[in-house]
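hey can u check if this looks right to u? its 257 residues, i copy pasted from the old doc so theres a chance i mangled smth
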Amino acid sequence: MTLPSLPLFHRLTGQPVVVLGHGEAAEAKRRLVLRAGGKVIEDLAEGIDTGARLAFIAHEDEAACQADAIRARGAGLLVNVVDKPALCDFTTPSIIDRAPVIVAVGTGGASAGLAKALRLRLERLLPQGLGALADALYAARGAMRSRWPTGPERRRALDAALEEGGALDPLREGGDVAAWVAGAADGASGRFVIRLRSSDPDDLTLREARLLGQADAVIAGPDAPAAVLARVRADAARITPGEAEPDGGIVVVIEAT
């Protein structure tokens, strides 16, 4: 049985990373570390002494894997043992690189083949210019703060621009960030009611799913399906019916069946 995990992006530039073992599996981990800017350390004691935080272990002998995993974990390192999810503190996803945009597909160690298949599908969807769009948005942060002074205002404007068909649709090449900041309208706001037809989030319309992903606050009773609430932004305010509603922004009311 696979366990739930929290996906994180670890900054490794110039940092030591332990990689133990020989063969193609170990070489693949070395390439992964080097591509992320890390420094490969092939001796566990040296890695511990130099402050390594991660260890990849790819011995062919399972007893050697278990022994080094115990030593590394005892020294405070997070451990990945290749092809042995039960021995792993973290797993490595299948990666789509549109630097600085990184898309990672993981299955919690259940199936590397499934993660690869999904990556190959997504590779065809994501344009090569996606990284340039991210860089342009980073460069425009000051202009965006001047145009929309508060965080919620900026988020709503960005949501509108980045949605399908928007001025900066990330799946379409050619978005001009500077022109958008200069002429963009403010993002959507208002109070919206979603009347659920079932507890299955796949029954949400595209508009309903988009509202849940953009909402500043969600009003839902205890009968609201957990699977539907999982589609709500993690930082959206959760309000029970009858409580005071916020002024402004996108407020979504969920009415269960």
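The first helix runs from residue 24 to 35.
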